Amino acid sequence: MNPLKIAIATDHGAFHHKEALKEHLLAQGYDVVDFGCFDESSVDYPDTIYPAAVAVSNKEVDAGIIFCGTGIGASIVANKVKGIRCALIHSVWLAQVTKEHNNSNMIAMGGRVVDIPTALECADMWLKTSFSQEERHQNRIDKMMVLED
Ligand code: RB5
Q1: Do the beta carbons of residue 105 and residue 56 sit within 8 Å?
Q2: Confidence (pLDDT) at 53
Q3: Considering the entire predicted model, what is its pTM?
């Protein structure tokens, strides 16, 4: 099986988190598509986050992990894209339950909220966790996703 392909993106508020995550994922054998930003210069988060979310929605990548200073702006932008279920998280437990219950296809974290080791732990937990497949959760996801139409 091909390695999972992960989109990553941030604004300046979490540039070092994104760089650390990239190195961490590559070291584990994931394919990584980096949508920026590529230095600490100020950038508007929709400019980097939206293309990453579109790549997830179009299935050019398997999943997306995004950042901004708080994670809030990044998650709002991602959730504007059809097909995206982006969870704003700040703990390993949230990383686990959002995959099990929401089958989230993206997670967002805040570089000013979680430190880099926590962000990497959250990413690992989310990537290794599977959707529960429980009917009640699938029904809730189905009800959520028709709201897009
Ligand atoms: C940028 O300073 C900051 O507003 C942004 O990273 C994010 O926190 C927005 O939600």
Answers
A1: yes
A2: 98
A3: 0.97
